[in-house]
Specification:
Layout: H1 4-17, E1 23-28, E2 31-32, E3 36-37, H2 39-46, E4 51-57, E5 60-65, E6 70-74, E7 80-85, E8 94-100, E9 104-109, E10 116-120, H3 124-127, H4 129-132, H5 143-152, H6 158-163, H7 173-183, H8 196-222, E11 256-260, E12 263-267
Antiparallel strand pairs: 1-8, 2-3, 4-5, 5-6, 6-10, 7-9, 8-9, 11-12
The chain binds a DNA duplex (16 and 16 nucleotides) through residues 1-3, 6, 32-34, 59, 74-78, 92-93, 110-116, 130, 154-156, 160, 163, 165, 172-175, 241-242, 261-264.
Length: 273
Amino acid sequence: MPELPEVETIRRVLEHEVPGVRIDRVSGRSINMRRPLAIEKLAPLLTGASFLTLRRRAKYLLFDFDRPGSLLVHLGMSGRIQLVDEMAPLADHTHMILTLSDGRQLRFVDPRRFGLIDWLAPGGEDTDASLARLGIEPLDPGLVSILPPLLHERRSPIKSLLLDQRVVAGIGNIYAAEALWRAGIHPRRAANRTSLARLGRLAQSVQDVLKEAVDRGGTTLRDFSKPDGEMGFFAQQLAVYGRQGEECGRCGSAIRSEVIGGRTTAWCPECQR
DNA sequence: CCAGTATCCTGCAGGC
DNA sequence: TGCCTGCAGGATACTG
C-alpha cells in the first residue's frame, strides 16, 4: 500500500541491489491492470537487458537499462515488489517475474490490479498519458512558492486538491491528512478561502511529513534483510490518519473522520480550522 | 474548465 | 462455521 515515501524507499533499495544485474527471463501472464499488462510485448524488450538506474516520478518507478526505453511501474493500492531467490514460494497475484542473472527474481505482485506495468519508449516520460499531466513533485524545492497560488484559485476542499495528481503529484490519502493536521487546516476548507500564508505553511508541512517518512524508510532500509524480500513497508508515526476516536496528540480532542471527495479523512476538530 | 461521483479489483474485518 | 456488507494507502472516465 504504497505512498510516495514507500515508493522512494523501494527505489533506493533497488538502486542499491540491481544495477549491473541482467534480466535472463521474463515470465507472467497477460492480465488487465490499470493498463493491460502484455507480457509477450515486454519480454523481448526486457530479456537480456541489464539494469542501470532507477528513477521516481510521483508514485511511478522508472527502470532504466543498458538499452533505450524504460520500464514504468505503479503499485496502485495493493502492489508490492519482491526481490527474492528464484526458489522462494510464489505469492498469489504475482503478475510478472524477472529472473535475474544473479539467481534472484524481481516479482511484481498486485492483488487489486490498480497498478500498472508498461514499457516507455525513449522520450516516453514526456508523452505518456499518465506522466505528462502530473503536477509538481511534492519534494521539489520550489513547492512552497509554487503550490499556494495554484491552490488559491480553486474552490474544492483543500484535501481533494492535495490528492489531485494534476496539481501536485505523489501525495496520497495518509500524508494529505497528516500534512493538513500539521498545518492546522480543516480538510474540507475551500482552498480559495485559505490565506496564501496558510497555504504556504501547508506546502511546508507536506514536505516535512514526506521527508520524515522517507528518512524513516531509509532507516528501515539498513536492516533490509527480511527473508521474503518484501519492500516498502515501515512503521509509521501518524497523528490523525486511522486514529478517529483517539485523542489528538496536541490538544487531546477526539479525532474525527468523514468522507471528503470520496476518501475517508481524519482530522482534529480543535486544531484544524 | 471545474467539481463531484462512479468504477476498476481482491482481501479482510466485523456483524449476524 | 459461513454469508454479507463495507472499506482499503490510487487514478481517471464520466456527468452535470
